[in-house]
Amino acid sequence: MLLVFDIGNSNIVLGTYEGKKLLKHWRISTDRQKTGDEYGMLINNLFHFQGIRMTDIDAIIISSVVPPLIVPMIKMCERYFHLHPLIVGPGIKTGIRLKYENPREIGADRIVNAVGAFEQYGGPLIVIDIGTATTFDVVANNGDFLGGVIAPGIGISTEALFMRAAKLPRIELVTPKNVVNRNTIGGMQSGIIFGCVGQIDEIVRRIKDEMRMEMTVIATGGYARMIQRESTTIDKIDHFLTLTGLRVLYERNM
After folding, report:
1. CB 3.0 to 4.6 Å from 4: which of 51, 92, 166, 246, for a disulfide?
2. Measured between alpha carbons, how far is 126 from 202 in angstroms, rounded to an integer?
């Protein structure tokens, strides 16, 4: 059984695969202060609840955009699973060409998403990851990673308003019924959510104009479903895109 980890700035998504089938998956909070032992105990509890034993795992692959957690997670894998994980980074076989000035600058999650999206849907594609940051990655019809766009995410925008504007509260992110609101919370929700929708639709339109072709738009990430309900450009939601990409990368590096 293969165990895959996608370590993001806000959440860690992990899942187990039997061949190409995703058996179980979990989402936990990213905590830079947790030790490898703490993560080991947490994962052991998740496994126990689902009737999975740690000895059932025979391979592990990790993608991380949080560098301080890489070493603790490696130590956790070695201590609790007795396995050395494959880390997505320089030197890994991706199966796609990275048309980037410095490929080492590309976030591991963006590479994994591009691999997973091309494996699932072919190309050309625009892959949007709507999380802590909102990233747009362009994949050619032959699978080449052509570059993309990085923008502040919904969570960052919300926290920035709360932290930098003394009278604005921290709010729950739900889509308001109206664009124009008569209260502060509704006004903030409207500005953040519809502002993100407008940002996404406009950037997608500009990418398509620049590439001079129609492209399938795939969205993933914690806020993807909420944004897709209001967007006119997102074709499909795939919440397990990163996990799929990790499985494919492991298969290519066995």
Report:
1. 246
2. 13
In this structure, are 52 and 117 located in the same domain? Answer: no
Are residues 236 and 141 part of one domain? yes
Q: What is the pTM of this model?
A: 0.88
pLDDT score for 132: 81
Paired strand residues for 134: 130, 151
Judged against a pLDDT cut of 80, whether residue 243 lies above it is answered with: yes
Residue whose token pair is 């509890």: 45
Burial label for 88, CB within 10 Å (0-12, 13-18, 19+), is buried
Catalytic member of 6, 37, 58, 109: 109
Q: What pLDDT, on a 0 to 100 scale, did the predictor assign at position 234?
A: 97
Q: Are residues 235 and 110 in the same domain?
A: yes
Question: Is residue 109 annotated as a catalytic residue, yes or no?
Answer: yes
CATH of the domain at 18: 3.30.420.40
- Please report the pLDDT score of residue 42 as a whole number: 96
Query: Is there a domain that residue 252 lies in?
Result: no
Question: How many whole angstroms separate alpha carbon 26 and alpha carbon 101?
Answer: 35
Q: Where are the beta strands (DSSP E) in the chain?
A: 2-7, 11-18, 21-29, 59-64, 86-87, 125-130, 133-139, 145-152, 216-220, 236-237
Radius of gyration of the chain (CA): 19
- Spell out the SS3 assignment of 119-174: HHHCCCEEEEEECCEEEEEEECCCCCEEEEEEEECHHHHHHHHHHHCCCCCCCCCC
